[in-house]
Design goal:
Distance between the termini: 87 Å
Helix content: 40-55%
Strand order of the largest sheet: 1-2-3-6-5-4
Number of domains: 2
Largest sheet: 6 strands, antiparallel, barrel
Structural class: alpha+beta
Shape: elongated
Number of strands: 6
Number of helices: 15
Amino acid sequence: MDLFKTRFFTIWLFGALVLALSLPFWWVGALAGGQAPDWLPINLPLAALMTFNPGLAALVITGWESGGGAAKALLARCLDGARVRDRRWWTPAVLLFPGVLGLAFLWTLGRGEAPVVDVGAFASAPVLFALFLVGALGEELGWQGFAYERLAPRLGALPAALGLGVLWALWHVVPLRQAERATDWIVWHATGQVLVRVILTWIYLNTGRSVLAVAVCHALSNVSEFLVPNYGSSYDPAATTVILTGVVLGILAIWGPNLQIDRAADASAPKPPTLFEVTKRWLYAHGRPNPLARWLNAGWAAVHAWGVAPNWLVTLEVVGRRSGRVIRFPLVMAVVDGERYLASMLGPKALWVQNVAAAEGRARLLHGKREAVRLVSVPVADRAPVLKAYLQVAPGARPHVPIDKDAPLEAFAAIAEQVPVYRVEPWT
């Protein structure tokens, strides 16, 4: 075996070649003072033009190893969207990072910082996306399409992703210094980049190893960063990294260190959870709403109470068993044989269930008007048809109830004890 052509050795060669190709860009950036031209609104250093070096290094090594045909096949992966067999994975690829940066912006507002939002900046989003996509293809052809494929068989998915993430973050330090970023800013941003590499690897593996899908996700992370909310002026790497940590922990909790579910190993395995399901479970981890969920619930409670939503979306008012204050909960109402019912997707420990029990069933329903009601617990034996009707109209409850919405009634009867159900009766 030729040591210099072993797949693992070429990782070291790849890193050295990327470094060698980047040195001239760093030198030019230093001579030019690091900054991009004045006509470019975003704070992007000239050294950022090194973005094509990972892809170029991968093509050179692949051609040296296996010939020009292999290098052309690798280059063709820039347009490998056909690898994405499950089209649902385009959803997290497109929406995940805009969502993360949007939450980071809300975090900034929550701290009392209210930056000026330049709405006109968002008009540049298509142009920025096109530019960043070209650059992301140059990077991801090397990082995921080449380097990851060499590291993962030996290290495993998560260690390979973390290793590449560290290398990727270090590679960006010089351009960030040239952009005059503070040391603490760079440390937080670099930590976030390691987490982003784990997320990109997760996207890569679950999209059939599509370089294009990862590049789209990568490009949108850059676009989102530079448009929060005024050409990146309010981008906070610390807040973003904290949110990214939650995303990565959620991925590991659901998909494990392999970052994907092995469909071939168990053909009868359930479908992988969707991004919506993962998000809902995170919002209500351990059966209780986290701070973001409580904030969202307050908003939905107001919407349901106004009566502008469909009539099965209601707000429950009940006196808190400890505070003595009236507390609102947004709920979904099911109707079976003309009777109205409420169910608890979080089980008997849900706060509203405990408050209703303490209030002996007395409560109010709001949907355009306020109605005094009495909630009567439905016996376990009678809950199955109600639960089936409930899941039909409550998609947000499905990630928390361990059964398919179209399962037979016998299946609902088996889990009925876990889900409290109340019949809504007028208070007299």
